[in-house]
């Protein structure tokens, strides 16, 4: 598998190849594990993790990466890549200690190799872990450090996530500045995943700023690109953004359809946080349609779903809950 192409110019072809050849890759990986060939197992699992992640194969990815990494490896770069993948699956599970243990080992390997781009990747991902844990100060510091250690590298994702953190802190002006930096960098690169990723983040900030036409254009293009790449993990995020834009325009029928599509996909992968988020959007849609009782029930369901996750509720989320509860006439706990 050509790892370098998974986010580059050949990413659509890479994804299609991975879909077509996945069974053969799994057979080779399981043979390597059974034979005790740790080198091969780590190389294959490390090459497949991003595909598993984007297709929502979280349990499979975690199981096979963990099994592969039990074996020692004489190829530190390949091991570091596999550790990064396993950390991503631990983050999905909110297994923060295990996630950080993978990153610490990976960071030590990258530093021993003198690999500034790899060091930046690990610091970036440690920042995302801190953000998920509700520590936005540490998250911001890690992301800025990732930029500093690799100043000549691609900063698109770091800028995008700094924008997301600023949005979660209710600083829409800063969110827009970071995301516009990320957008300009993404548009200068090859078309594909990073463009779609940044477009959706920026579209959501523009929506909150009331710039619905610009937000709609970006979110539609994000959706198109994710669909073109058959990226089932990120595609519903763009659907949620478009549902909120439709709701802001008063088109509750379109909002309902888009939110339902996203909810089904989040439910299929049992993502409590994102399912709670789209259920909150559905509660607001019901309220706008005059269905206050249904809206209140959806609000309660969203709250219950969100309570299943250990991830801290951000100030932005809390404000959304309070706003929807107020619109529905539901008392909301302080």
Characterize this entry briefly:
With 334 residues, this protein is mainly alpha-helical. The chain has helices spanning 11-35, 38-55, 58-69, 76-92, 96-113, 116-132, 136-149, 156-168, 172-188, 193-208, 212-228, 235-248, 252-268, 272-288, 292-307, 315-328. It contains 16 helices and no strands.
Characterization of this structure:
The structure is a single chain. This protein has 334 residues and is mainly alpha-helical. Helix content is 78%, strand content 0%. The protein is built from 16 helices and no strands. Helix 13 packs antiparallel against helix 14 (272-288). The radius of gyration is 20 Å and the shape is globular. The chain starts with 10 loop residues before the first helix and ends in a 6-residue tail after the last helix. 46% of the residues are buried. Mean pLDDT is 92; it is low at 1-6.
The tally of beta strands, per DSSP, is 0
Query: Into which percent range does the helicity of residues fall?
Result: over 70%
Tell me the structural class: mainly alpha
Contiguous uncertain segments of 5+ residues: 1-6
The value of Rg in angstroms is: 20 Å
Overall geometry:
globular
Question: What is the CA–CA distance across the termini?
Answer: 51 Å
Strand content: under 5%
For the sheet with most strands, the description reads:
none
Structure annotation, total helices: 16
H-E string: HHHHHHHHHHHHHHHH
């Amino acid at each position: 598998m050509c790892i370098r192409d998974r986010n580059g110019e050949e990413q659509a072809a890479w994804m299609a190849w991975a879909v077509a050849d996945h069974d053969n890759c799994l057979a080779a990986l399981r043979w390597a594990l059974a034979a005790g060939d740790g080198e091969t197992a780590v190389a294959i699992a490390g090459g497949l993790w991003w595909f598993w992640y984007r297709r929502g194969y979280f349990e499979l990815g975690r199981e096979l990466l963990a099994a592969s990494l039990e074996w020692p490896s004489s190829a530190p770069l390949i091991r570091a890549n596999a550790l990064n993948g396993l950390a991503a699956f631990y983050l999905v599970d909110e297994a923060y200690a295990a996630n950080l243990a993978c990153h610490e080992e990976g960071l030590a390997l990258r530093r021993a190799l003198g690999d500034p781009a790899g060091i930046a990747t690990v610091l970036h991902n440690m920042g995302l872990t801190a953000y998920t844990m509700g520590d936005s100060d540490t998250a911001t510091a890690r992301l800025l450090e990732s930029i500093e250690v690799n100043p000549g590298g691609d900063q698109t994702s770091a800028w995008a996530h700094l924008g997301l953190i600023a949005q979660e802190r209710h600083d829409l002006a800063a969110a827009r500045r970071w995301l516009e930096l990320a957008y300009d960098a993404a548009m200068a690169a090859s078309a594909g995943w990073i463009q779609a990723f940044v477009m959706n983040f920026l579209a959501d900030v523009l929506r909150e700023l009331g710039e619905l036409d610009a937000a709609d254009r970006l979110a539609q293009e994000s959706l198109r690109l994710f669909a073109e790449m058959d990226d089932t993990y990120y595609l519903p995020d763009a659907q949620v953004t478009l549902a909120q834009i439709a709701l802001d325009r008063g088109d509750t029928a379109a909002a309902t359809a888009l939110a339902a599509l996203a909810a089904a996909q989040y439910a299929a992968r049992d993502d409590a946080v994102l399912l709670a988020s789209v259920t909150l959007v559905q509660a607001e849609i019901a309220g706008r349609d005059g269905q206050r009782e249904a809206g209140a029930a959806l609000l309660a369901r969203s709250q219950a779903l969100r309570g299943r996750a250990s991830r801290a509720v951000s100030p932005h989320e809390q404000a959304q809950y309070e706003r929807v509860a107020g619109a529905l006439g539901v008392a909301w706990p302080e």
